[in-house]
Amino acid sequence: MVFTQVDTAQKRLDDHLPYAGEAAVADVRRLAQALLGARVLHVSSTPYGGGVAELLHTIVPLMRDAGLDAQWFVLDGAPLEFFEVTKRIHNTLQGMEDALTPEEWTLYGDVNRSLAAVFPEGPWDFVVIHDPQPLLAGAMARGSAAAGGEAEGARWFWRCHIDLSTPLESTWQRLHPLVNQYDGAIVTSCEYAREEIAIPIAQITPSIDPTSPKNLPLDRGRARAVLSEFGVDPDRPLLVQVSRFDPWKDPFGVIDAFRIVKADYPVVQLALVGSIALDDPEGVRLLDDLKQAAGGNPDAHVLSNQDGVHAAEVAAFQQEADVVIQKSVREGFGLTITEGMWKARPVVAGQATGCRLQIEDGRSGYLIGSTEECAARIVQILSDPGLGQALGHEARETVRRRFLSTAHVARYLSLFSQGSGRKQEA
Ligand code: UDP
Q1: Which residue's alpha carbon is nearest to atom 17 within ligand 1?
Q2: Which atom of ligand 1 is nearest to the CA of 275?
Q3: Is the CB of 358 under 6 A from ligand 1?
Q4: Structure confidence by residue, pLDDT tens digits, 123-168
Q5: What's the CATH fold of domain 220-402?
Q6: Which of 48-57, 79-88, 197-206 is predicted least confidently?
Q7: d(CA 240, CA 268)
């Protein structure tokens, strides 16, 4: 087992000017002045699949362009069972009643101990450990680095992308003492910050990269051709949910809502688009079940990276959707929502905290509490094109102001340059 460095593409802050504006880019450059050459290490679980990887592919190179020495390492060679365990840790942190066995905790500990022994060599000025998979390895590496007298003033952060508001007690009791070995915690919403976290807490919301192929406008003809390729009729209304195949995203609820809408709008189609992440064996099982659930209806399409749906295809589905759905029950943030909003689509999303962070109900999308409500909002939007346009317009403006990569990098830099107080907004 090793850590492997992710070779990110080069990105330039200047390329963000047309989208984020001069003030946002100048802000990053101003904050970077005090941090030029700082060695920043990000550690996460996988190089592809899921929101964390998506984020790091942009913010790491943008930090570099701003003048910091930012690097990103991922776990390499950990056994599949480890990812089964960390998926359960993820699920139980979000409240699932599925306590881990002592043997599973032992596996988590053993893998992390091995990883700590091969932790990327410093000295680092700032270390950001993402999510629970490498949490213990980071805590251990920090301990030994401190013992070795490394990088005086180095600050180690645990960056939690998960909704921590209702964790399963047995999991949280194991993890929070590890979190408290860091210098600071970073959460997506202060609503997730638990009392047991005794270290300073900063709130940083994630972002999307307006220059990435996923978020640039696609030629309409090309986008429509992509839909046709996957059996979707580009001339009929289309509902789209893009997400990992994960129960928290409520994909079965999406199929139920689709069936209700279909009663009013027989021409409507659904595309459930998802990828199977490397660290997500549960997703494989869920994909099979979903294909079965949708099986009876030729207008319900369940598509994954195994069918050849990659970033460009995801972008086409999002752009051409009449309604973007994100029916999550729990959602740390939900980049798929941000992506739909940036494409000026009306988004109908669950009441999860991450969705509420982004959507102002009735203004920049709709928040729904049930399948019936979800279907009713979709019908409302499909019957009133002006409504969909107005929601989409507000949605795009919201993302431009608050959720582009430049603002995200600025929040990190601002955290790095402060002595952080408890529950501050970075
Ligand atoms: N994504 C993708 N292909 C898929 C499903 C998801 O490229 O089939 C991307 C999606 O566009 C988004 C990210 O993966 O950028 C998912 O991030 P999000 O925060 O929505 O959810 P997470 O997977 O982190 O829970």
Answers
A1: 51
A2: 8
A3: no
A4: 999 999 999 999 999 999 998 876 654 556 799 999 999 989 899 9
A5: Rossmann fold (3.40.50)
A6: 48-57
A7: 11
